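Example 3.2
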Amino acid sequence: MKFLESSCSFEVLDEELINSTKLFECSNLDLNDFFQNYCIAFANELMGKTYCFTLDSDSKNIVCSFTISNDSIKTSILPNARKKKVLKNIPSQKRFKSYPAVLIGRLGVSKEFTSLGIGTELLNFIKSWFIDRDNKTGCRFIIVDSYNTNEALNFYKKNGFNFLFSSEEQEKTATDVSNDSQIKTRLMYFDLITLYS
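Structure, written as C-alpha cells:
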C-alpha cells in the first residue's frame, strides 16, 4: 500500500491548517516561501488552490504540498514538430488551438520525507484525480513549469513528463525570454489520455 494513501490525510492547505502545523520545509527555499507566505493570498485571488497530505500519526506534520490551477496548451506557439508530438494521440477531427490542462504551479515534499518516493506518489495522485470520472471538468494535460535543474527535470521525466519545447532556445523564443538570459524553468507536460485503458 502507498504511504500517502495508508498513512496520511488529504487536506486543503488553508490558513487554519498552516497555523496549526509545523513549518513546512522542503529542500527549495522558493517553494518554502510560497507555501509558508503566499499560498493563501494566491487562493484568495482565485489564482490556484493548494493542497497537502498531513501525517496521520502526527497531524501537525505536513508531508507534501502542491498548488494547482487551470491552464491550457496553446498549440499556436509550438514549432510544428513539437505540435505533432503533443497532438499525436488526439484524433484530427478533435484538433483545436488550445487544449485543457491543469498546471502544477508548486510541488514540494518535506525534508523529513525525501528519498521515499513521495513525489512520485503525489504525481500519481494528481494524475488519477484528473482522470477520475467524477472530475468536474475536462482536463487532457498536466503541465508543470519545472525548475531548470537536472534534479527537477529528471524527476518529471521519470514520471512520464515531456518537454513542451524541444530546446531551451525554442522555449525562450516562444516565451519572450532574452537569448542572453538563462531560462529558470522549463515547461513540461503529461498527456492524461495515456492512463485510460
